């Protein structure tokens, strides 16, 4: 980083403004000692003193009897060597000299009327106090000798208009001119006005401004209407080093003193802010100053990299201090994060500040200490990568399930069975259990009216009680159960909490239905009414194990008594069952509702919706309609996101609450029967092209809006009733086309 | 540094010449859009099987850094909105053109450019598809504009001075909010965050959007706001992150949509730039200045826990 004396007054300097009142300003120039600024425009020409915290108007140069066009300034420059000398370029082509040491109020010293058209730029020679350059709309650059008060040389550019001229720093004989045809020309004053020693095209479209870097040799910046600031190394040829893309056409540019890569710019249109760019970061300004209300027309650095002045079409002069700048890049989001729901993937882009692009590490830790913030600015690049977090993000929705689940077309029990197997095959134990218990619930529910069947439910014990039971009849069975229980506890702790008593039953049911080995069964009701075949099959299988015997064994008394008594005996005396009363079917539906709500809350709307859908034809679960709607909406959206449109359609059709969705994206077009042109909503049944009402009845000549019948032969038709009446007495077409429709 | 087993990292060349500010996946998870400081938006095709990315298009039209992009719901076609430092919001639409030789080429056209803001537009967010083609954008000029496509033209509704000093983020509430809106009438709502350190909630009322709630809690600029999806959930949550290095989850326990209680996820070591919910709204992805992504889930104990961290 460069470090030089940077304006000692920076600490105290502050942003301040001055309202010119008289009109918009076109240019400004600082006096040699930076204590005064001259501001010039079409209707304004003032010298302001720059105080600590304000501008003070010192001299108004627009005084005198005849304020002619010579006072209408396009550009102003203050002599570097003579602090009383100011030159302006006027819109009428005049280059005017002003002498501040004049005693009279009017300070006008001399008018050079050599240019034919508007003068865009005037500039003093950096070392020769008597040399003045001017660039004009007439396509020429003129060099004035102030001693003899005449234009000594005329340089004819290759263009209609010269927009900016500037002497090369540390070179007393050369200057550049930029012109509206996009070219930059370098001239040698000593060689006269014949031809430039270098010409190159810098921009497509007019170049409005140029500035030589004050410190770097051969470095020229140009700004053009093509919304670019270009930085060139100019030797025998010009090579492009950087190109900054600005928001709007570039009006003025000025290198920031003591900085290698910073350049200030103003826009010609649209953008009122003054921007300072780092040439290595071509898309975002390093700093922006947004004080002006209208486009800025001139900027000048106050001999310090931290303070500059600008003037604008909004009739103000501002002193800007760098500490008040906005830093667009600092506001910018340095990261991007995208979550891919479908793949369960996260894409992240992070900013790195590593200048060497070779093999950046995956998760870069940039070293904040080595590079200052200013230096970091230009090194910003983004690394983009994706990583999977599927299990974590996608939890609760399984595409395989959605594809394979059967939700309609079979009896609910069968559906439960099928879906439980699918869930189990996908290693989703808790979901499989929900299906199983749903099936159990369905079985019991269907047999509900028969009183003693209810004991089936009674006999489902809570596992802990089982394990506490004396290991009398079948130890291995009990071990098996408690093992199983532990397994499930570890894998489905959460669901167990919520499922509560039912959950404990679940494990039992899993034994009942899943495991092939001998299992518990407590109740057998041989005299029971006919149960659905499926349910019975299971019971039979299981019964083969031993439970009936076992139960009978462990309740030696009154085996022949009512089944209920047996169950109660079992519970109290031996297995310590908690259940006293038979659990009514309603409790089950409530528990299932709870289970579904739990799953939905955990984000698994899939299970919630699917189970509910299967149950829907036989039982109404106490779930609020709007909750249900929310679940269905969510599940449908998930299906749609995964392009499972058929499955989504099934849900929409059978959920019963979102029927309107199936009508939503359906549209139909009505066309004119004659020409095929689609009918617009506005015109109703009138075809724009045929200029006729469509679908007219051949009998009554009115438009048919309801059912219409027509002859396949001639194409004429009308209201069914009218035609029926007509053809009861006629055979020919009612329109009169001669076709015998009714033969 | 290595990545954990949960994070299989794939780096890919975005092709951008400068910092990337935003990346968005579309509804189907098959397209990715990125936008950058280099004034361009780039669109990639994401292979759903192996997750590889194929470059599809580069969208040029902005005249300044592009801050954010957003995909419209696919029922409205392949449509993308982008907002930029150049004060514009551009709506891009992909159209298919069949060449004479039968080849199909995809073209991206800027179908509409909104230039109603006085300063950089920082955020765009599409409304739930139920509301039609509707988008909210927040700008540094403090205003928020709601653009909706009605009767073949874009209707503009503006909230002036929504956030003093500028709005940084907007996020729509889902169309289905079980605990709010007990009436059948569905209300359009969105949340916004800004440089005034506030999160604000806006509700449509008589064709205007009015401020419904103002959530104070952050001590620095709010950088991102994310309204949780409603899927199966019963409580409304809004996540916001800020330059004060905190992430706040705003819980609407009452279910009235007005009284939100803040719950600070954690105070991090660095600025948090992004918060994003998973589809069901039970996992929150947080990414911060340390370039790490962490995933947070609320456990039964009622506490938010970090379930995964890309640095581990």
TrEMBL record, chain A:
<dbReference type="InterPro" id="IPR001680">
    <property type="entry name" value="WD40_rpt"/>
</dbReference>
<feature type="repeat" description="WD">
    <location>
        <begin position="112"/>
        <end position="154"/>
    </location>
</feature>
<dbReference type="InterPro" id="IPR037590">
    <property type="entry name" value="WDR24"/>
</dbReference>
<keyword id="KW-0853">WD repeat</keyword>
<feature type="compositionally biased region" description="Polar residues">
    <location>
        <begin position="456"/>
        <end position="467"/>
    </location>
</feature>
<dbReference type="InterPro" id="IPR015943">
    <property type="entry name" value="WD40/YVTN_repeat-like_dom_sf"/>
</dbReference>
<feature type="compositionally biased region" description="Basic and acidic residues">
    <location>
        <begin position="472"/>
        <end position="487"/>
    </location>
</feature>
<protein>
    <recommendedName>
        <fullName>GATOR2 complex protein WDR24</fullName>
    </recommendedName>
</protein>
<feature type="repeat" description="WD">
    <location>
        <begin position="200"/>
        <end position="242"/>
    </location>
</feature>
<comment type="similarity">
    <text>Belongs to the WD repeat WDR24 family.</text>
</comment>
<dbReference type="Pfam" id="PF00400">
    <property type="entry name" value="WD40"/>
</dbReference>
<feature type="repeat" description="WD">
    <location>
        <begin position="155"/>
        <end position="192"/>
    </location>
</feature>
<feature type="region of interest" description="Disordered">
    <location>
        <begin position="454"/>
        <end position="493"/>
    </location>
</feature>
<dbReference type="InterPro" id="IPR036322">
    <property type="entry name" value="WD40_repeat_dom_sf"/>
</dbReference>
<keyword id="KW-0677">Repeat</keyword>
UniProtKB/TrEMBL annotation, chain B:
<keyword id="KW-0813">Transport</keyword>
<keyword id="KW-0906">Nuclear pore complex</keyword>
<feature type="repeat" description="WD">
    <location>
        <begin position="59"/>
        <end position="93"/>
    </location>
</feature>
<keyword id="KW-0509">mRNA transport</keyword>
<keyword id="KW-0539">Nucleus</keyword>
<keyword id="KW-0811">Translocation</keyword>
<keyword id="KW-0458">Lysosome</keyword>
<dbReference type="InterPro" id="IPR001680">
    <property type="entry name" value="WD40_rpt"/>
</dbReference>
<protein>
    <recommendedName>
        <fullName>Protein SEC13 homolog</fullName>
    </recommendedName>
</protein>
<keyword id="KW-0853">WD repeat</keyword>
<keyword id="KW-0677">Repeat</keyword>
<dbReference type="InterPro" id="IPR036322">
    <property type="entry name" value="WD40_repeat_dom_sf"/>
</dbReference>
<keyword id="KW-0653">Protein transport</keyword>
<feature type="repeat" description="WD">
    <location>
        <begin position="215"/>
        <end position="260"/>
    </location>
</feature>
<dbReference type="InterPro" id="IPR037363">
    <property type="entry name" value="Sec13/Seh1_fam"/>
</dbReference>
<dbReference type="InterPro" id="IPR015943">
    <property type="entry name" value="WD40/YVTN_repeat-like_dom_sf"/>
</dbReference>
<comment type="similarity">
    <text>Belongs to the WD repeat SEC13 family.</text>
</comment>
<dbReference type="Pfam" id="PF00400">
    <property type="entry name" value="WD40"/>
</dbReference>
């Amino acid at each position: 980083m460069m470090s030089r004396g940077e304006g000692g007054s920076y600490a105290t300097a502050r942003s301040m403004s001055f309202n010119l009142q008289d009109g918009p300003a076109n240019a400004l120039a600082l006096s040699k000692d930076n204590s005064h600024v001259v501001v010039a425009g079409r209707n304004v020409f003032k010298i302001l003193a720059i105080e600590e915290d304000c501008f003070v108007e010192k001299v108004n140069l627009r005084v005198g009897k005849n304020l002619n066009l010579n006072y209408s300034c396009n550009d102003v420059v203050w002599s570097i060597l003579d602090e009383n000398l100011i030159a302006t370029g006027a819109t009428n082509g005049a280059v005017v000299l002003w002498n501040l040491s004049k005693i009279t109020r009017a300070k006008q010293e001399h008018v050079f009327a050599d240019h034919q058209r508007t003068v865009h730029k005037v500039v003093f020679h950096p070392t020769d106090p008597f040399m003045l350059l001017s660039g004009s709309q007439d396509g020429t650059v003129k060099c004035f000798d102030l001693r003899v008060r005449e234009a000594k040389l005329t340089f004819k550019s290759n263009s209609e208009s010269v927009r900016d001229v500037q002497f090369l720093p540390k070179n007393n004989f050369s200057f550049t001119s930029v012109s509206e045809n996009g070219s930059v020309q370098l001239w040698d004053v000593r060689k006269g006005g014949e031809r430039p020693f270098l010409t190159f095209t810098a921009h497509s479209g007019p170049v409005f401004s140029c500035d030589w870097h004050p410190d770097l040799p051969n470095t020229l910046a140009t700004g053009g209407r093509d919304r670019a600031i270009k930085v060139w190394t100019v030797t025998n040829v010009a090579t492009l080093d950087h190109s900054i893309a600005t928001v709007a056409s570039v009006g003025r540019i000025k290198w920031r003193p003591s900085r290698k890569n910073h350049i200030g710019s103003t826009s010609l249109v649209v953008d009122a802010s003054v921007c300072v760019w780092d040439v290595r970061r071509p898309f975002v300004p390093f700093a922006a100053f947004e004080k002006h209300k209208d486009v800025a027309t001139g900027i000048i650095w106050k001999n310090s990299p931290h303070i500059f002045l600008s003037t604008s079409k909004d009739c103000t002069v501002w002193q800007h201090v760098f500490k008040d700048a906005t830093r667009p890049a600092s506001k910018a989001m340095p990261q991007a994060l995208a979550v891919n729901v479908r793949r369960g993937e996260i894409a992240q882009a992070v900013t790195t500040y590593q200048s060497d692009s070779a093999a950046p590490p995956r998760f870069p830790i940039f070293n904040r200490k080595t590079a200052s913030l200013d230096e970091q600015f230009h090194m910003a690049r983004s690394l983009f990568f994706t990583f999977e977090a599927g299990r974590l993000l996608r939890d609760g929705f399984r595409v395989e399930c959605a594809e394979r689940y059967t939700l309609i077309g079979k009896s609910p029990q069968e559906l439960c069975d099928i879906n439980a197997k699918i869930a189990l095959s996908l290693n989703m134990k808790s979901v499989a259990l929900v299906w199983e218990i749903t099936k159990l619930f369905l079985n019991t529910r269907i047999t509900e009216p028969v009183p003693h069947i209810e004991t089936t439910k009674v006999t489902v014990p809570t596992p802990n009680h089982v394990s506490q039971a004396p290991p009398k009849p079948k130890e291995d069975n009990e071990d098996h159960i408690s093992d199983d229980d532990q397994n499930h506890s570890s894998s489905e702790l959460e669901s167990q909490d919520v499922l509560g008593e039912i959950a404990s039953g679940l494990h039992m049911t899993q034994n009942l239905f899943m495991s092939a080995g001998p299992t518990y069964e407590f109740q057998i009701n041989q005299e029971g009414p006919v149960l659905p075949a499926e349910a019975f099959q299971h019971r039979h299988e299981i019964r083969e194990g031993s439970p009936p015997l076992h139960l009978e064994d462990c309740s030696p008394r009154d085996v022949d008594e009512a089944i209920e008594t047996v169950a109660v005996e079992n519970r109290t005396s031996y297995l310590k069952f908690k259940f006293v009363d038979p659990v009514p079917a309603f409790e089950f539906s409530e528990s299932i509702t709870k289970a579904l709500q739990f799953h939905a809350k955990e984000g698994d709307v899939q299970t919630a919706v699917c189970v509910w859908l299967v149950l829907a034809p036989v039982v109404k679960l106490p779930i609020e309609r709007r909750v249900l709607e929310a679940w269905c909406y969510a599940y449908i959206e998930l299906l749609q996101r995964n392009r499972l449109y058929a499955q989504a359609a099934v849900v929409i059709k059978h959920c019963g609450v979102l029927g309107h969705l199936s009508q939503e994206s359906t549209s139909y077009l009505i066309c004119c029967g004659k020409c095929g042109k689609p009918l617009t909503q506005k015109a109703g049944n009138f075809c724009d092209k045929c200029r006729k009402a469509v679908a007219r009845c051949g009998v009554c000549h009115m438009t048919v809006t309801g059912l219409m019948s027509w002859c396949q032969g001639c194409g004429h038709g009308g209201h069914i009733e009218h035609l029926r009446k007509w053809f009861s007495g006629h055979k020919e077409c009612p329109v009169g086309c001669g076709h015998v429709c009714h033969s | 540094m290595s990545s954990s087993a949960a994070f299989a990292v794939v780096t890919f060349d975005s092709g951008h010449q400068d910092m990337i500010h935003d990346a968005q996946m579309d509804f189907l998870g098959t397209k990715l859009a990125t936008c950058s400081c280099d004034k361009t938006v780039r669109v990639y095709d994401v292979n759903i099987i192996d997750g590889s990315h194929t470059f599809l298009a580069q969208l040029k039209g902005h005249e300044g850094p592009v801050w954010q992009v957003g995909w419209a719901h696919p029922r409205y076609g392949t449509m993308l909105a982008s907002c930029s430092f150049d004060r514009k919001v551009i709506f891009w639409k992909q159209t298919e053109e069949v060449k004479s030789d039968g080849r199909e080429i995809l073209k991206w056209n800027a179908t509409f450019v909104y230039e109603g803001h006085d300063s950089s537009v920082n955020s765009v967010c599409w409304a739930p598809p139920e509301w039609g083609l509707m988008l909210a954008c927040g700008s540094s000029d403090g205003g928020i504009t709601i653009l909706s496509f009605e009767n073949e033209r874009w209707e503009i509704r503006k909230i002036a001075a929504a956030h003093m000093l500028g709005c940084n983020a907007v996020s729509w509430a889902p169309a289905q909010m079980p605990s709010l809106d007990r009436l059948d009438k569905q209300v359009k709502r969105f949340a916004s965050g800004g440089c005034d350190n506030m999160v604000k909630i806006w509700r449509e009322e008589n064709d205007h959007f009015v401020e419904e709630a103002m959530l104070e809690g952050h001590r620095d600029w709010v950088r991102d706001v994310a309204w949780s999806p409603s899927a199966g959930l019963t409580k409304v949550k809004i996540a916001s992150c800020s330059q004060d290095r905190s992430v706040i989850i705003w819980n609407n326990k009452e279910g009235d949509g007005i009284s939100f209680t803040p719950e600070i996820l954690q105070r991090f070591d660095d600025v948090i730039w992004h918060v994003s919910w998973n589809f069901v709204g039970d996992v929150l992805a947080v990414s911060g200045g340390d370039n790490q992504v962490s995933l947070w889930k609320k456990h039964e104990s009622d506490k938010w826990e970090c379930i995964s961290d890309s640095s581990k």
